[in-house]
Amino acid sequence: MKTHQEIERRSLALARAVVEIIDRDSERKGIRKAQENCSRWYRESHAPAIAEWREILKRDWPHVRKLLLDDSDQGRRLRQSSPFCGVLSPRQRWDIYRSFQDEPPAA
User: Fold this and answer.
1) What pLDDT band is residue 3 in, cutting at 50, 70 and 90?
2) 97 in Cβ contact with 64 (< 8 Å)
3) DSSP state of 70
4) 93-to-16, 39, 44 alpha-carbon distances in Å
5) What is the secondary structure of 72-84 as a DSSP string?
6) Which string of DSSP letters, residue by residue, matches 25-63?
7) Residues whose CB falls within 8 Å of the CB of residue 93, separated by 6 or more in sequence, listed in order
8) Comparing C-alpha atoms, which of 33, 38, 8 is closest to residue 21?
9) Distance between CA 7 and CA 10 in Å, rounded?
């Protein structure tokens, strides 16, 4: 079983991959995808995390990017409810997951 720290490292790796994709895309389609996810999820559940992301996604990309990669408690908490589903292809996501399966267990 993965430790919380291992799961957080994997979550950060996924966030970094999302950031790479959005950084390369001048149209920032990944941001629109996250906004669409939040809108859909918010209709289904008025969860505080979704409402927080909806507000964050109104900001400019550098601000969103900084929060997504932030190694603070806030950054870790936000990544646990990341609305960036669908930005990475299934293959990209599974490649990251597999890279963490190969890691030796934490001591």
Assistant:
1) confident
2) no
3) -
4) 11, 23, 25
5) SHHHHHHHTT---
6) -TT-HHHHHHHHHHHHHHHH---HHHHHHHHHTTS-HHH
7) 14
8) 33
9) 5
Amino acid at 74: Q
Rounded-to-integer distance, Cα 1 and Cα 103, Å:
12
Which residue do the tokens 């994997």 mark? 10
Q: pLDDT tens across 36-94, in order?
A: 999 999 888 888 999 999 999 999 999 999 999 999 999 999 999 999 999 999 999 99
**Dihedral sign computed on CA atoms, order 4, 52, 68, 22:** positive
* Total count of residues recorded for the chain: 107
* pLDDT tens digits, one per residue of 6-34: 889 999 999 999 999 999 999 999 999 99
The amino acid at residue 9 is R
Residue 103 has a pLDDT of: 60
